[in-house]
Predict the structure.
Amino acid sequence: MEKALAELERVQTQILQRISKLELSCSSLDLSIPGHHSLPSPNAICDTESRLSAILRKNCVNDFSFKKVPTNYYDSPLEARRDALAAASIDHLCKSIVLVNTQAPSNVIDCSDRNNSKYYVVVVQYTARFNAETVKNFLYSLNDGKIAKKKFNLRLAPEETSVKLTGFEHNAVTCIGMKTDIPVILDEAIVKLHPDFFWLGGGEINLKLGIRTSEFINFVKPFIVSCSGT
């Protein structure tokens, strides 16, 4: 009887050892399903944010912030958007729009000449009304009147053109990290904001970028033009 109990105890010990080895082996295996990835946490930093943050820091921009917004952000009034970003006011909510000069001379096909570019990105407030005529007059003066005023006619670029040039889709356009080095026009009203920290697109629809105005200007070097009304 004692011999049988000893044998049983030996077998049980072997079984427990084998189970321990199997558990140890399984813990080191990657059991994820091929082609599937775990969902990122809500606060996970996306690739776009990492890329743009690196660009900003490399260019001595330190006072900036990215914030993710809810999916109904653009269905909400400006006051709700202000609250979602903790912005100073609705006047601090801005957008970047890509414009095309539809009357540019045939030899002006790209952005190589920032004074006479085929395309421009204009940053304006959501609360303001963009005035294309003031940009037209500014570009005419910028070129010392050597280019006929009728050769400047700024219009909203088609969405597919905007995406191709910037790499960002509608409601995600930002001046930082664009595929093409498009010259930027910053509305003078934004420069006059207090505090001098405004919000604009962050490269993804649900991602917004807040940035110190002075640092934005030092890095982007935009033309500062009074190009809006209320």
Observations:
- DSSP finds seven helices and ten strands in the chain.
